[in-house]
């Protein structure tokens, strides 16, 4: 028996035969055997179950026929019709890039968190205006000469320098302790982004603190030694709020320190700078910026609760649960509005101070935000709205106080203008 016959007998029954018949191609002679039998299996076979002789093959003649049907491929030369130039790279290599003075200034300025200057500038403005209101209520328009605009400007500059220096020192010590390294929502980050060397950040922060302290010393020589005490307390709070491993902000003292500094300390200090005396009424007014600033610091801690916990920084936010954090935040905001009502509602009170209630729509946004979100991104939006709320609240309060002092003395102005 031939090899071909053995192959046909052993082939499985499941194989499908496909025969291709060709017509007679020459001289009218009978049919020539021109059939090419291509046998393909309907199933996938494995090498273990099939012998080499059983694998179907395609006759060589069929492959030659198929190759004659393929179109000829011709290769043509492709030449550029116009000159090609390499474009200027969008990003220059670090070795070739040099920042200008304006770029460095912008980097430093953004790293010092200028938006947060509202926390210190607004209570200083409130204390200064309270001193002006007191002068106008006692002596009328003639008392304007006893208000010192130069002290106001120098004092405001001193407060701003102290806060900017505190922000840079905070960045330095946060870097040392691994705080906010993965927080993309936090401001500053001059060191974390590799923009400025850590020692340069610390050095410039200390320079700003020294500049603010020097201005405060000059003001204390002009207004009296109690102002020196206010300045010394502010300087210590600015440095030790985040400096050293036993920083005040890491010992759950951040909120009390923020309340004292951004409330009574700056407000009463600004009032004393103009009047050289203390006042219990000014202390009551100072509670409002203090409570609002504390609410801002607390929601900032709520946003950073995970990063602070990983770095070992203890705050009230990562000690209390989310529910108690919300209650504390709402209590701080409500306390500021309660103090406003206590000041503006009595019979002989400056009722125009209640203009600050125009911030109630912003308050609704803040309250709804803190109640509805527990994500860091959502809390960051609440933080921004809280800062906006404090800015408008104190600004409108100042306007109301000025109107309350100016309107009663307006009839005296024409008589003073006459010879």
Descriptive overview:
- The chain starts with a helix and ends with a helix.
- The chain has helices at 3-10, 60-69, 101-111, 118-139, 149-177, 198-223, 225-240, 254-275, 280-303, 305-310, 316-319, 322-344, 360-372, 376-406, 412-417, and strands at 16-20, 36-40.
- Residues 1-42 have low confidence and may be disordered.
- It is mostly helical and 419 residues long.
- 33% of the residues are buried.
- It contains 15 helices and 2 strands.
- It has one domain (101-408).
- A two-stranded antiparallel ribbon has the order 1-2.
- 60% of the residues lie in helices and 2% in strands.
Q: So what's the overall shape?
A: globular
The radius of gyration computed from the alpha-carbon positions, rounded to a whole number of angstroms, is 41 Å
Binned, the helix content reads: 55-70%
Note the total helix count: 15
Number of domains: 1
Q: Name the poorly predicted regions.
A: 1-42
Order of helices and strands: HEEHHHHHHHHHHHHHH
Beta content comes to under 5%
Largest sheet: 2 strands, antiparallel
Number of strands: 2
What integer is the average pLDDT? 79
Provide the spatial order of strands within the biggest beta sheet.
1-2
Estimated structural class: mainly alpha
Q: What is the first-to-last residue Cα distance? A: 145 Å
Catalytic activity: an all-trans-polyprenyl diphosphate + 1,4-dihydroxy-2-naphthoate + H(+) = a 2-demethylmenaquinol + CO2 + diphosphate
Region (Disordered): 1-42
InterPro entries: MenA, UbiA_prenyltransferase, UbiA_sf, UBIAD1
EC number: 2.5.1.74
């Amino acid at each position: 028996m031939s090899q071909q016959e053995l192959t046909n007998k052993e082939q499985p029954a499941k194989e499908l035969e496909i025969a291709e018949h060709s017509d007679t191609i020459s001289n009218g002679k009978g049919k020539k055997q021109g059939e090419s039998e291509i046998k393909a299996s309907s199933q996938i076979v494995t090498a273990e179950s099939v012998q080499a002789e059983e694998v179907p093959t395609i006759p060589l003649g069929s492959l030659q026929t198929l190759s004659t049907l393929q179109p000829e491929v011709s290769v043509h030369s492709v030449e550029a019709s116009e000159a090609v130039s390499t474009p200027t790279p969008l990003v220059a290599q670090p070795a070739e890039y040099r920042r200008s003075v304006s770029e460095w200034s912008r980097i430093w300025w953004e790293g010092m968190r200028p938006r947060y200057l509202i926390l210190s500038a607004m209570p200083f403005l409130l204390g200064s205006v309270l001193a002006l209101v007191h002068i106008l209520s006692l002596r009328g328009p003639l008392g304007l000469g006893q208000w010192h605009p130069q002290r106001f400007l120098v004092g405001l500059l001193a407060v701003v320098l102290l806060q900017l220096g505190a922000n840079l020192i905070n960045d330095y010590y946060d870097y040392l302790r691994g705080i906010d390294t993965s927080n993309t929502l936090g401001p500053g980050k001059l060191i974390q982004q590799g923009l400025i060397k850590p020692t340069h950040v610390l050095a410039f922060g200390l320079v700003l603190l020294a500049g603010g302290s020097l201005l405060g010393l000059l003001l204390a020589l002009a207004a009296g030694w109690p102002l020196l005490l206010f300045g010394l307390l502010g300087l210590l709070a600015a440095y030790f709020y985040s400096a050293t491993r036993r920083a005040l902000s890491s010992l759950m003292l951040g909120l009390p320190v923020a309340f004292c500094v951004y409330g009574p300390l700056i407000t009463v200090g600004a009032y004393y700078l103009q009047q050289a005396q203390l006042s219990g009424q000014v202390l009551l007014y100072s509670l409002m910026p203090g409570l609002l600033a504390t609410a801002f610091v607390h929601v900032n801690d709520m946003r950073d609760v995970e990063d602070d916990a990983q770095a070992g920084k203890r705050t009230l936010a990562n000690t209390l649960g989310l529910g108690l954090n919300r209650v504390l935040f709402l209590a701080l905001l409500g306390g500021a509005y309660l103090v406003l009502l206590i000041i503006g509602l009595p019979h002989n009170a400056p009722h125009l101070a209640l203009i600050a209630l125009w911030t109630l729509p912003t308050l609704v946004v803040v309250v709804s935000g803190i109640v509805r979100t527990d994500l860091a991104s959502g809390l960051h939006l609440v933080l921004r709205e809280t800062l906006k709320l404090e800015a408008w609240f104190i600004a409108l309060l100042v306007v109301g106080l000025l109107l309350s002092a100016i309107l009663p003395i307006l009839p005296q102005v024409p008589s003073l203008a006459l010879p």
